[in-house]
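CORE FACILITY INTAKE
Project code: CF-77B
Contact: R.S. (postdoc)
Sample description: multi-component assembly, two entities in total
Requested service: structural model of the whole complex
Turnaround: standard
Below are the sequence entries exactly as provided by the requester. Do not edit them.
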Amino acid sequence: MNNEKKNPPVRRMPSGPGNPGVPGAMGGKVRKATVKRLFSYMFQYKLHFIAVVVCIIASAATGAVSSLFLQKLIDGYITPLLMASAPDYSGLVRIILLMAGIYLVGVVATLLYNRLMAVISQGVLKKIRDDMFARMQALPIRYFDTHSHGDVMSHYTNDTDALRQMISQAIPQIFSSVITLVSVFFAMLYISVWLTLFVIAYIFVMKKVISVIAGRSRGHFVRQQEALGDLNGYIEEMINGQKVVKVFCHEEKAKEIFDGKNKELEMNARLANRYANILMPILISLGYVLYVVLAIAGALMDIGHVPNLSLTGTGALTLGMIASFLQLSRNFSGPIGQVSQQLNAIIMAMAGAERIFKLMDEEPEQDSGYVTLVNVRREGDALVETAARTELWAWKHPHTDGTLTYTELKGEVRFYDVDFGYEENKRVLHNISLFAKPGQKVAFVGATGAGKTTITNLINRYYDIADGKIRYDDININKIRKSDLRRSLGIVLQDVNLFTGTVMDNIRYGRLDATDEECIAAAKLANADGFIRMLPKGYQTVLSGDGSGLSQGQRQLISIARAAVADPPVMILDEATSSIDTRTEAHVQRGMDSLMKGRTVFVIAHRLSTVQNANVIMVLEHGEIIERGTHEALIAEKGKYYQLYTGVFELE
Amino acid sequence: MIKQLAGSLRQYRKNTVLTPIFVTVEVIMEVVIPLLMSRLIDYGITARNMNYVVGMGCALLVCAVLSLAAGVIAGHHSAFASAGFAANLRRDMYHRVQDFSFSNIDKYSTSSIITRLTTDVTNLQNAFMMIIRMASRSPLMLIFSLAASFSIDTRLSLIFLAMIPVLGFGLWFIISKVHPIFMRVFKTYDRLNNIVQENLRGIRVVKSFVREDYEIKKFAGVSEVIYDDFSKGEKINAFNMPLMQLCTYACMLLISWFGAKAIVASGGNPIGGLSTGELMSLITYTMSILISLMMLSMVFIMITISRASAERVVEVLNEESDLKNPPAPVTAVPDGSIGFENVCFTYSSLADKPVLTGIDLKIGSGETVGILGGTGSSKTSLVQLIPRLYDATAGRVTVGGVDVRDYDIETLRDSVAMVLQKNELFSGTIKENLRWGNPSASDEELVRVCRLAQADGFIQEFPDKYDTYIEQGGTNVSGGQKQRLCIARALLKKPKILILDDSTSAVDTGTEALIRRAFLAELPETTKIIIAQRISSVQDADKIIVLDDGLVSATGTHDTLLETSQIYREVYESQMKGGKVNE
């Protein structure tokens, strides 16, 4: 449990590229590739998508027609009716029924595209989520060692959330706004070109205003996100160490630093929100100004009998036309405001998408292995592959000349002059050679950081060696398919990780088709059966939060049982019993011994008592094997091992 | 709950009140403007009265400026109020958490406190801003628009009155259907995140058992549930817009029909009956009324969603620390002697079995005491009572002859340094981390304690030595190095009592022996309590306490315990196994 719990700040927005730089129209530096890729997800719903486009057009057109309707109503019906001595309402009835029909289509179209969008957006999100998780599973251990878990988590939470908002709300909203704008614009041209010129001038003013305000807002917005990340990071760190804070009476200092960061966030949040808040009132007021300007211009044209120019030709500007145009102008400012409100959402989502795609594009674990593990049956001297589950396993090795050979899985591991470093020019292991015969117990002893765990990381190829060779049953492990290699290795780590589920599920994790009886037998072997039966529901007790209800020692016992169920020919025990007190360990020992019997076992332990009966003990120092031999031989040698060993009992 | 949250407004109360006031002005303008617009059409354009058009236009511009001013001021205040409210909430909660006792901390998981301080506060901030802006806007808009339309034409306005219940009922129906679905979705999201988290932490397990596909399937299963529920919810939500449109369009058509008839009937005279301009105003109001209803429903949804967050925040705010300073606290610890008098302890009143029972101990000042016992024998629980991290359920714990409950907590904890089993370093330099023990310690002092804790050696090997930056959680130092830094940090307090809770488990035995020797030589006055797994860590102690299942099973020196305590002997033998063969 030592360094596993790092939950660094959850950053909502990275400060890297792809971030809003240029304010204004459609979010500055959104990368084209990201947009394209996002759309490729949506285009998987091609038919849905086409239907959505059609429906949005229909819905927006209905809105525009509705504005024209007013003109028709006034000019075509109300005014003539006013003149008529005996008003005939049948025409009015017809147009109203016609409009009702159009409206109905519009409403249905709106309903349809909203429902389709729900399917598309959720489908896309599910696909992205699933892809992301599958890709993540394929990443090498190195990735997980070098990336903070909190950061990766935020891809699934914050980033996906931002995407959801964008896909399900911003995109249809913007799309529909744009279509509304276009159709309103044509409707305006249809009425009067002159008046439309005013609208065009107005668009330019509006654009300028939006870009100025959005630009200012964005600067603060980025700073707000940074301050938020900073504060959240501080909160996470402090709350995680809250007990230490208490023990050191560090509360006041912790409050002081918190208050500073909190203030910083408040200042930025306040400014960012202020600019966002005043955008709408400004746009609305500008809309009023446009209205007044248009009214005056319209009146002037009407009074001055200026010939009107419209898409349908020239003619007089009627009263209904002016009224209708004014109504249209009100429909114009609304969508612009809506689009500008969605910009932030889009920028956030794009930043999120970029982060998600970055995770997906990480280099997956390379596996060029072609030697596989298969069940075999013995026929005379030969090994014959079989689909049935036998107790006999073999490496199936296809050769370049087309022949196949089967090598029995025995569990022999050899290292030849292996060098390795986690970083390019920082060697952790030098010249490691070792030889573990099937059924042998090999122990690694040495100070923290001497490279013990690193060696085991190489055997199951969590990391690949820089130089040298590792052979497994005399096959270069690079040739073995990783999944098969790992299936043949059992590993019990110091930091136990359990999964949410019953105790039984957790044990069965070792071999999914194990029966309950087999799981219980494994638990008995690991000496875990006793305490498991004491749990409220025995084997059916549900563990959550990484088995938080159990002690560290109990969790280790379960993880030993889990490895026992897998029944692999080679086992790696990395400080597997470090949290079990020595007395209990002595009790477990018998089980451990029977667990280890007939297997090649690599043991890493602090307690020398755990490793004394090993066939060979390797003493590591600074990545080199400095001594090797049996316990007795090493004691006789009076070297480092002797010092370590006597260090334990130094006062005797 | 609301009262509690409102308490965090403090200096932003003014902004909070001003926001709706200016929003009101904005709304009034928004209602007046269409009225003026209709007049402009009726008396200006229709009458071809240019002066009227210009005059009314100017009036409109004035209104537009007023509306702009009010809107900007309201936006400003609401931004101040909501950012301030959130900051105050975070501050109140954080300060409250700082006052938590260990048992308060245990009650909440770390991640739940973090979520409350981050996500929940952000939710509340958004909801709060929405409420102070919308909650006044929508009802006012609704009332004013209704009033205005009634003033234009009472009979036509009845159409609205008929439509409001239809829309209201429709919205209510949608919300009541969707709400439970979304609540379920959020729960499922937790499950999904849990899977991701477990996979991140246990990736070595997943890979070593080759369970990638199994995990992918598990994830996809939950992901599918989210997809199903979420799209179901959104599909129902999809009725919102069309319903709104349906009502708007119906109103418009009805108003057009009846309006046209009314205009014709009145001969288009705005004084007597309905005019063209008025008809247009009515249609504008149709939009306003329906939009404000829509907004109201959004506010309503927002409130229900943020209610969960509010409850979680208030829970923290209301959490009372169960450890309080006594009224007249003792502010000096005389010496490092410790006494346990018939102490019992349970973590929670619900637990049926006490963790510690009938503990009686006397530890003299300056003694070295070892505590030994199996996993779960309550070693940690025992020592946590000394710096009063928890209060004993029954009995008395004394330090320097004074009941720990009579001390000023800070005085007590400064004198009792405890190195926790699960210890933390914080991001910052080694120096900064060490100075947690004593902010005013000199550099020489730091080196001195690090020598004692056998940390100076490896620190000197770092390129930046004492200025080496420690990453969050101390991930860039090894487990053993971390433990030694934590010990040095505790030593800096110059404590009267030093408690090491399995604090050298990752330190190799040779180094550990050096640390012990240094303690003996350099800290003779300090009472040292050492919890350990290794016999070697405690066997030279003045006194060894063997705990078993919450009871003191035996006390004595190494030699006497070997004779008298079976448990001790078993532990000893388990660690000596094989060793004897050679001796």
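Facility notes:
- Chain B touches chain A through 173 residues (CB under 8 Å).
- Chain B has a mean pLDDT of 80.
Invoice: internal transfer
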